[in-house]
Every structure is written in structure tokens, then in C-alpha cells.
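Class, study these two lines:
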Amino acid sequence: MHYADTADNADGTAEAFCYCGWVEDHPTRDAADAAATNHQRNADATEAEFAAAH
């Protein structure tokens, strides 16, 4: 399971990140939040698919 989150940068941009090492910078917090949500959902779906196949 992935745990993605966001953080605000001093320059007004935002960063989306995950404990797995994934990081993306975005111009807004909303964009970073959407990216974090997508990363977490996609990673969780991939892991569930792998678990079901094995």
C-alpha cells in the first residue's frame, strides 16, 4: 500500500510525494493533491492485481 501526500513549497508551488520515493512538483496544491491521489490509487491497484495473480 502506498501513502502519498502533499507539501507546500516556499515559492507557492506544491509537491506530491510517496514513501516509495515518487515525487512530483506541481504549480498548485490542488494539482499536487490530484497527482498524489492518482499515484496512490494506481499503485494500490497494481499491487492488488499482482496479489490476485499469485
The mean pLDDT is 92. The CA atoms of residues 4 and 38 lie 9 Å apart. The longest strand covers residues 4-8.
